[in-house]
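R.M. (postdoc): so does anyone remember the format we settled on? I'll just put the structure tokens first.
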């Protein structure tokens, strides 16, 4: 059996799509279909079933994938250990959030790409809970989060730095004249929040819930730039990482409201038992330098 069939099977199992697998591996979609068919003929079982637009593993498919996952990992490890090139190749899959992607991680990725131009780096943005799940199931080799410190028996968590959270408003908002804002002062305000499930929103909503605070209204956006623009236009206030608003504050576009709130951590997360490839090792070394 051609070992490439196992890689194809592994990719389809991860993506749930023949089309996406074909794009990922550089095959025609018909080639992906043919390879999966040959595997099914070899093992005499059906490996996938279509559910909506996705291909889902059957029960025999799940059994095979448990073995293939280990086989692919060992083959990748062997290739990395045997290759002596200084210009590393292969793929690193990194999961992260919008703030980290936009304001923190890109210089490190740039350095790694400059050193190893043939290295493929896949950076995917998502919400914390989805990123953690993707790290556990192997979708991501490593995840860079901005959240409260994570804890999971299957994960290794390395805090990189504490990130200050700030309550922001337009520069002419009455809150900017206060010496200290209390949570109850927010009851008549409009809050401009990130999308549901975002770590900043979860933190803010939990703080309000603990004090039984009901705000006047809520506007929600998935885009940080949209949130900042609404705040600058005086439509409400928002809680965001300082790293995301620092330049806007310096330019006088936004102002910090005097309010104490817990910080969050930029943290590197990966599987506790994960084999660390050389490209991944170099990336982690770059980003973990204090």
């Amino acid at each position: 059996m051609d070992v490439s069939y196992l890689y194809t099977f592994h990719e389809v199992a991860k993506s749930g799509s023949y089309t996406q697998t074909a794009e990922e591996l550089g095959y025609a979609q018909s080639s992906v279909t043919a390879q999966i068919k040959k595997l099914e003929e070899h093992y005499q079982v059906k490996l996938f079933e279509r559910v909506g637009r996705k291909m889902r593993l059957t029960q025999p498919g799940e059994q095979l994938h448990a073995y293939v996952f280990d086989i692919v990992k060992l083959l990748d490890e062997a290739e990395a250990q045997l290759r002596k090139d200084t210009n590393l190749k292969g793929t690193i899959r990194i999961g992260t959030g919008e703030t980290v992607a936009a304001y923190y991680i890109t210089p490190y990725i740039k350095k790694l790409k400059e050193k190893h131009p043939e290295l493929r780096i896949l950076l995917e943005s998502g919400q914390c809970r989805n990123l953690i799940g993707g790290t556990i199931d192997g979708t991501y080799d490593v995840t860079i989060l901005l959240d409260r410190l994570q804890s999971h028996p299957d994960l290794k968590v390395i805090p990189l730095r504490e990130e200050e959270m700030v309550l922001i408003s337009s520069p002419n908002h009455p809150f900017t004249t206060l010496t200290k804002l209390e949570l109850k002062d927010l009851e008549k305000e409009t809050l401009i929040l990130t999308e549901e499930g975002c770590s900043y929103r979860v933190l803010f909503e939990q703080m309000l819930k603990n004090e039984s605070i009901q705000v006047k209204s809520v506007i929600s956006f998935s885009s940080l730039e949209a949130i900042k623009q609404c705040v600058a236009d005086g439509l409400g206030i928002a809680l965001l990482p300082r790293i995301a608003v620092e330049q806007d504050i310096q330019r006088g576009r936004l102002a910090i409201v005097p309010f104490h709130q817990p910080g969050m951590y930029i943290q590197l997360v990966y599987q506790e038992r994960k084999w660390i490839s050389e490209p991944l090792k170099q990336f982690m070394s770059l980003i973990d330098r204090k």
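R.M.: ...and that's the designed sequence above, right after the tokens. Also worth knowing: The chain has eleven helices and twelve strands. The chain has a mean pLDDT of 88.
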